[in-house]
Amino acid sequence: MILALILTPARAEQVRKAVKEHGEVVFDQTGKMDSPGIRNAFQSAARVGADTLIVDIDAGPGPDLAAALRGYRIARPYVRIILLAPGRQPGDAAVATLVGLGVYDIIDGPVEADWGDLVTQALASVPATYAQAARWHIIRGLSGEEQVKEKVVIEQRPMGVVTIAVTGAAPGLGCTHTALAISAFLARQGHNVALVEDSQELVMLDYLNVIGAGDGRVEGARRIKGFDVFPGDITGLTEERGTGFIFDRVLPALREGNYQYVVRDLGFVDSTRIREALRSNLAVLVASAARWRWGDLVKVENLSSFRLALVAPGGREAKEVQKIPEVKAYVIPYQPDPFNIPGESHAELLQPVLPRSRQEKKLFWVRFRVAAATSKRPSA
Known about the structure:
Layout: E1 2-7, H1 9-19, E2 24-30, H2 35-45, E3 52-56, H3 62-75, E4 80-86, H4 93-99, E5 105-109, H5 115-123, H6 130-133, E6 142-143, E7 146-147, E8 153-156, E9 162-168, H7 175-188, E10 193-197, H8 204-211, E11 214-215, E12 222-224, E13 227-230, H9 246-249, H10 251-256, E14 261-268, H11 271-278, E15 282-287, H12 294-298, E16 307-311, H13 315-322, E17 328-332, H14 343-349, E18 356-359, H15 366-375
Helix pairs in contact: 1-5, 2-3
């Protein structure tokens, strides 16, 4: 078997050891690549005659990786492509796009899994078919058994990097939980996302170490569930803990990572954090809908500038908060695991900064219609 590899540093060593017993590696590209980098990697891989290509979905930005793989598929239509999709779940937009390009061997699992063992199992199995990959595929244009007419859809995307600030009306309301959930939701939509921990209580580094999070797209970042995390205790910045915000100090890394969305976990509100939140494209305030906690909202300056995320409120309580003048409140269902919250609630909460689609209206050529009508007139 002749193999080609396009991998991230987090899984490269495990995969290399696993493939030694299955054949010869004729192309090996490892790294967190930008748009030109991932395109060049696939173009180089297409120049060698491999039987199997193993690709890590985190090796490059989702849309750019899909475009590069499309070119590879045209050049090498019969190569078996095995996709490593750590932390991804069925319905993931990036994976669905690749399935549409004929990538059916999809290896999923937690980031901390033994990827060498998973690759060994895949290579020892017969190539997968669409029937096995169908659970990952989002089919647009079908409604039940009835096929609808194809529509031309144009996405209107926010310009530049979008910053979303998440802060709590009081300690302990779930600011970090909500920031993680928002980041995971955006990553599932195929966006490049970074989460920056600017909370008063720095807990992210311990959490990342416990779950064995891999390396991120840039130095200092860790990767979970398809997005990067910059923990507050990031190496080299701990001596300044408690002074300023890490966001300002990781700006060069954020630019290098070409992130489309940056989510800031600001902790619970104070005057400084309110100012930071209002610097963002979208300010989210995590609050309780309980009447006895309404005093938390009264203390927040410029409350009308925030979108309230009410985490698991009672139905009546949520409606009462939503009646408050100039307050935009949205209900987030209770879910202990921030990565399993239904996307509909976050889509509504984040609507102002999400890509919007509009149907392109079909053009009617008046001149042609007039000419055609004229040609049908009987001659005098």
